[in-house]
Design a protein that fits this description.
seven-stranded mixed beta sheet; 7 strands; about 30% helix; globular
């Protein structure tokens, strides 16, 4: 990650008082049929705050974007990960990524890639093996540029959509 991004943003775990900001960002970044509900967002934050990485804007103190997931031994993404934080296994070798959100005013400067790179660095330090995510077809190229491999259309039908399953070795 370049120094300019490190200087502008603080990369850290989400804090308990930031739930509402995260919910609002999710609602901006995803359509209603795909966005995480406030209840499920709260569950993720409570269950696995160490897997909920935020980029805080050092100037405003607000969250500019975040990446969150749950650890598991599973290797195939299933929609239950979106709604059931009890699937979290703190010793799991893989991470199911549940959302990469960057507010529109912060896009185009490499923040999404910086969040992914920082996430990979952190998870490498605790000996995780793989990141697994789902995305719509128009996002496949973006994730490939971040080192993910497209496995084709997966089993996810979240929000009534067909999703590509992608993986990245850590």
């Amino acid at each position: 990650m370049n120094q300019k991004l490190r200087d502008r943003y603080e990369f850290r775990n989400i804090q308990p008082g930031e739930l509402q900001q995260a919910v609002e960002i999710e609602q901006i970044c995803f359509p209603p049929n795909e966005a995480c509900s406030p209840e499920h967002m709260k569950g993720r934050i409570e269950k696995a705050p160490e897997l909920f990485l935020v980029a805080g804007d050092r100037e405003t103190g607000k969250i500019a974007g975040f990446l969150n997931g749950l650890a598991t031994e599973e290797e195939i993404f299933r929609d239950e990960f979106f709604v059931d934080p009890d699937l979290y296994d703190p010793n799991g070798k893989n991470i199911m990524l549940l959302g990469l959100d960057v507010l529109p005013e912060y896009r185009g400067q490499g923040l999404a890639r910086a969040l992914v790179d920082e996430y990979v660095r952190r998870e490498r330090d605790v000996n995780r093996s793989k990141l697994i995510l789902t995305c719509l077809p128009e996002k496949v190229k973006m994730y490939e540029r971040m080192g993910f491999v497209d496995k084709g259309i997966g089993s996810s039908t979240w929000g009534g959509e067909a999703w590509h399953e992608m993986t990245r070795e850590i």
